[in-house]
Amino acid sequence: MPLNTIQKGDCAEIMRSLPKGSVDMIFADPPYNLQLGGELHRPDNSKVDACDDHWDQFSSLKTYDDFTREWLSAARDLLTDDGSIWVIGSYHNIFRLGTILQDLGFWVLNDIVWRKANPMPNFRGRRFTNAHETLIWAAKSEKSKYRFNYDAMKALNEDVQMRSDWFLPLCTGGERLKDDNGEKAHPTQKPEALLYRVLMASTLPGDTVLDPFFGTGTTGAVAKKMKRNWIGIDREDSYIKAATKRIAETKAEIDNDLLQTVSKREEQRIPFGWLIERGLLKPGAVLTDPKHEHTAKVGADGNLITDTADGGQQRGSIHRMGAAAQGAPSCNGWTYWHYRDGKNYQPIDNLRQKLRTELAKRPDTTGTEARTLQ
Amino acid sequence: MPLNTIQKGDCAEIMRSLPKGSVDMIFADPPYNLQLGGELHRPDNSKVDACDDHWDQFSSLKTYDDFTREWLSAARDLLTDDGSIWVIGSYHNIFRLGTILQDLGFWVLNDIVWRKANPMPNFRGRRFTNAHETLIWAAKSEKSKYRFNYDAMKALNEDVQMRSDWFLPLCTGGERLKDDNGEKAHPTQKPEALLYRVLMASTLPGDTVLDPFFGTGTTGAVAKKMKRNWIGIDREDSYIKAATKRIAETKAEIDNDLLQTVSKREEQRIPFGWLIERGLLKPGAVLTDPKHEHTAKVGADGNLITDTADGGQQRGSIHRMGAAAQGAPSCNGWTYWHYRDGKNYQPIDNLRQKLRTELAKRPDTTGTEARTLQ
DNA sequence: ATCACCAGTGAATCGGATG
DNA sequence: CCATCCGATTCACTGGTGA
């Protein structure tokens, strides 16, 4: 795999030449097929520098669809089974992209709206200001165990779930690459903040990220900063030259420990029985629910024991017995059951956390056991 | 023309029976083809009342496409040459709708994002909160002299061009129609404010507006208020009954309350993570408290990271880590934590203020940032 | 009259490991 | 392939009740 390099050529062809199932995530910013008419002027009569490059011209919708199906199909084969893809577009092409993604078997996870902080106004006053672009995030298939760093996204948003509408400025000012004449090097350079969020959401450090329409290499630059491996593909020498220089000047600046995000789901599993084995809870201890409406006794084997209405007993895991007490389909026993700590009641999750901290300090003695029991 | 009545039956069939070129605008809220799996429960174990009605079930994407092509084709013939159509959908169906619209010769004018003020969260934490729906506004053809009430839209928006992202609350409370059992009469009733803006943008009083998926008749009720003629089509007796009653009780008067967009909040919320995404702070930057007694490092996800006495690490939001450092129950992390600016230390609140000023320069007037600029 | 608290709810493609 | 079990997971808003 040609990691951390730019390949020159047709992206479908090059993707077909790489080993199948070898890429964790693909970010694609394909031609939008804008179909612009004549020139557009601002109210002050200055001319709008539109995207009229040859690579954005297609003779018909069918030509665009064929082109799209070709590269998306190659992209799908390149992804690992649990990989995912991001594509970005506007109303000119996003419906074609979305339809073909679905037809090829991709499973759409979200459509994301990039709300532009500073869009170009509609100078003619004939439509609404086109103030957003759309990203589609899709897994390779319905069965994929795609990666989503939920906790990182929540943390980025001050502990509130990240929504499907993102408000970010355009790429302007110093971030915008210029060519030797001081003109913008690429007509549609995307802001790094957009890629930062995409990479943070759906990849891990060390993952391989491919961008088939690399342009000025925003994906590569952000991937390098965030210690993801990247592969870029483009057909234009001028873009490859600009991207190469840009990425060479970019440092992998973020430390490993800073790149880590914690997810409860990925923490070490602690069976309830370990609390008893290690004396954090004694057999016979009485647990209650938060409202003190139900009680259960701790059995020596890690089961809980409750008395039933008919004078019998019931036993089961902390989760099963919590669900039964509430008449609910499921229950997180760790947060439901509380133990007595002096005059207060604490969730048994506190004991789990305590044990987890201890185990982390002594990885040599307990690590193997913990790992094998996971 | 059966103006201001509801027709019962298949919408494509009924549209074919009406005179061609006789309708000025069509608003369509077709089935979304959600393809839901099993049941979904909230964290409190209550069940989500999903949209699982028979009319939303299609056996395949092809079946859905055939259905869509059929009614959109009939709709196109029904429009005047200068007429336009609005369709609404989610990522499940909007790409199919958009592709078929384009294939039939409709000319897309805008895609509009309805950002929901109060969407349902993602309960499992597996994706981004699906916080918007998409509307497509299209003219009958590229040559259409479609109607767009530019000045009305600008006036609605405090004299700034209306953007393509609209921030509106869901239809809840008193506006939501209930059946005889007190249950919601329709699973997906749209808010009147949404229809108000659509009608205000693209029709004139006296115009004829048709809704082929009439449901509880929101389109008819708002059209009546705004003195547009309306035609509704639906297949379900229960919806027709509810819509008939609703429109009979609606008066043909323009309700000024509807004119208002959701009021702006005083200040927009800036998550700490935005400073990192936008490069105002780098991951790894060291923050200190005003007395330089505590330090914390900035994580890539917007959490702060501190070293604990026992050699471990702790992470959390700026507020939580500020509280922990002081042993206080709460803390305003924005004023507590300081970053190094040359030789001086400045509260990170300065960076927030800087970003806020930048954002304020480009006010998102359409819609109120509320808590969710995102 | 006001406030605090609780319950309910909205177009939702909402697990993963183990046996 | 399927069954079983563990255990992680929610935001904004409305309306009712009781102090």
From TrEMBL, chains A, B:
GO MF term list: DNA binding; N-methyltransferase activity; site-specific DNA-methyltransferase (adenine-specific) activity
DNA methylase N-4/N-6 domain residues: 23-244
Family matches, as PANTHER family: RNA METHYLASE-RELATED, TRNA (GUANINE(10)-N2)-METHYLTRANSFERASE HOMOLOG
Provenance organism: Micavibrio aeruginosavorus (strain ARL-13)
EC number: 2.1.1.-
Statement: the UniProt record of this protein carries the keyword Aminoacyl-tRNA synthetase: no
Record's keyword terms, sorted: DNA replication, DNA-binding, Methyltransferase, S-adenosyl-L-methionine, Transferase
Annotated catalysed reactions: a 2'-deoxyadenosine in DNA + S-adenosyl-L-methionine = an N(6)-methyl-2'-deoxyadenosine in DNA + S-adenosyl-L-homocysteine + H(+)
Cellular component terms (Gene Ontology): cytoplasm
Name the record gives this protein: Methyltransferase
Domain RAMA residue range list: 261-359
Pfam families: N6_N4_Mtase, RAMA
InterPro entries, A to Z: DNA_methylase_N4/N6, DNA_methylase_N6_adenine_CS, RAMA, RM_Methyltransferase, SAM-dependent_MTases_sf
Stored SUPFAM superfamilies: S-adenosyl-L-methionine-dependent methyltransferases
Family membership: Belongs to the N(4)/N(6)-methyltransferase family.
GO BP terms, alphabetized: DNA replication; methylation
